[in-house]
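Fold this sequence, please.
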Amino acid sequence: MHITVKDISRIFGEMAPTRLAEEWDNVGLLAGRSEKEVKVILCALDFSAEVLEQAKKCHADIIITHHPAIFHGIKQLTDSDWRTALLMEAVRNDIAVYSAHTNLDSAAGGVNDVLAGLLELQNIEGLAGEESLEGIGRIGNLNETVELKAFVEKVKRVLMLEYVTVVSANRPVYKVAVCGGSGMDFLDRAAQAGADTYVTGDVKYHEAQEAFGKHINLIDASHQGTELPVVNEMADRLALRLSRDGYAVKVLVAKESLLLRTI
């Protein structure tokens, strides 16, 4: 059965509603022909040269990313900037680009639910107390209280990270808040919700001081590390939905290198 880029946009918009995106965000179909037939979809965290090359090799018709391919306004569409050069190459190869950013962060089953699930949190709630499990961040509890060192090792194992950065408040771990990506704006929410430990990414020095002062353990598992797991999840959910609806579409997951690493 025939399906187009416009149809894929609609279906993914049901999985991660655009109404959940922050006002400053840029989500949805960002490049490409809406009536193009789709036979192959490539899911990725980022729209990058690495991902675009894979899309070309697997003959993808659309790339679905978490981070927007176009974030700030574009005033010139030339090859002088690497971002616009990549967009031009995608369009030249008739590959559409769709992005679901903060709407995928906030959606039920999105970035933060996947992260909470990997950490085996129970009794999961929205970080701001949302009844519908929509909104930025999640909070839940472990099956039992563990020492911080043991929990850190678990974070590294399930996210497949060689290292994380830790601020210890000398508290055992039981009630854990998570916010994939860059979540330090929600530290107060985590503390007010009673979390003893907060897992997020992109922590700056003075933000680490703030966590220590609020007596909450902080684990910086990196922006990329806390968000990569959602890519497989969104690919699986999309493939199941398309199969259920009778569409013979191949849904693939890009292989993405860790951007930041120790050497």
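The chain has two domains: 5-101+228-251, 108-220. The chain is about 35% helix and 20% strand.
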